[in-house]
Amino acid sequence: MCLRLFCILLAAVSGAQGWGYYGCDEELVGPLYYRSLGASSYYGLFTAPRFARLHGISGWSPRTGDPNPWLQIDLMKKHRIRAVATQGSFNSWDWVTRYMLLYGDRVDSWTPFYQQGHNATFFGNVNESAVVRHDLHYHFTARYIRIVPLAWNPRGKIGLRLGLYGCPYKSDVLYFDGDDAISYRFPRGVSQSLWDVFAFSFKTEEKDGLLLHAEGAQGDYVTLELQGAHLLLHMSLGSSPIQPRPGHTTVSAGGVLNDQHWHYVRVDRYGRQANLTLDGYVQRFILNGDFERLNLDNEMFIGGLVGAQKNLAYRHNFRGCMENVIFNRVNIADLAVRRHSRITFEGKVAFRCLDPVPHPVNFGGPHNFLQVPGFPRRGRLAVSFRFRTWDLTGLLLYSSPSPKPSPSPWPWLPGPKPTPDPGGVQI
């Protein structure tokens, strides 16, 4: 009975948030201009990508001998996708029996969609006329969709007409460079709740970083962070000297989450029962302790901390993009974009996703170095880099936190030596 009530309340919360996506079932390919449909190649004039629409007069077929055929759809802006449907080419023996679905925000970075059971293959058609639709077990957001045929009718060739179902998606993005953070102040100064929903999407190339943190005076807290490219959720509903059971709970999910692809995270809680969802895969668990309400004080931190917190040791700030940060019906990212008075900024948070571009530096001799000045009045420093070398020994990095320049840390090197910059970094 309790589990049934939990599921009903979570469904009600999701519906109230607009996350049930009711009515999000528009056919998206039909209204597009022909230039939004592309392909690796096409067989002839009447099998061009522009004809790859459901119930069209033809269909798309690649040229004979195309080693890696694909059909690509540009939705022109980000959409939420909930279903895919296929047909074979009209009045022919050409249809696809199995295919892969790829999606992304750029045409050079793709994510395969995995069905339940970690299967990336969709079953297609058995004839040229019937529409085969797959309702996805979780909805994803993307601008670009690519269909990769894997098998087709042996009596014909690849033939495809495609439909995508979903709706437009409003995206509020925050970019953190590892030295930024925002805080959201609760409307009444505190947040006391029996149920909660936390949801957002993120992408990064860093293995570690603090995504979200909030805490209360009675030992309540919630933390979402990356450690070793895994997602960790830490939560406690509080503690008391007269309650012997510890309240701390940690749940881990995913792996290799620093792949620069978007990942969707959602936490649903009702009392001590909770779900952690990562990219459509759900973990259900019971929180430790004896309390059922989450009592949070003053504010919630996104992307890093602003000041010290008693329930959280030092963590690396997040470096990457976060999208549509939702807490109990409030879109914190939207408030930040509109610079609402409840939002406090630490550093320079950008409102568009900036993909990092690597700039390799070559040190050709023992006296070459790069000196990076320090930031005044900053109490922390985090540096990461990749390197390759054929030298057996050598100094990679040095920083002097002293307010006075310290002696050279490399007295054994002949010739001129760099003078350490207090708070700066020598590489």
TrEMBL record:
Signal peptide: 1-18
Biased segments, Pro residues type: 402-421
Any one of the GO BP annotations: cell adhesion
Laminin G domain mapped to chain residues: 173-353
InterPro entries: ConA-like_dom_sf (IPR013320), FA58C (IPR000421), Galactose-bd-like_sf (IPR008979), Laminin_G (IPR001791), Neurexin-related_CASP (IPR050372)
Stretch list, region Disordered: 400-427
Record has ATP-binding as a keyword: no
Residues in F5/8 type C domain copies: 24-167
Subcellular location: Membrane
Topology relative to the membrane: Single-pass type I membrane protein
Gene Ontology CC terms: membrane
Cross-referenced Pfam families: F5_F8_type_C, Laminin_G_2
Alphabetically ordered keywords of this record: Cell adhesion, EGF-like domain, Glycoprotein, Membrane, Repeat, Signal, Transmembrane, Transmembrane helix
Family: Belongs to the neurexin family.
PANTHER family assigned: CONTACTIN-ASSOCIATED PROTEIN 1, PIKACHURIN-LIKE PROTEIN
Protein name (Swiss-Prot/TrEMBL): Contactin associated protein 1
Species of the source: Myotis myotis (Greater mouse-eared bat)
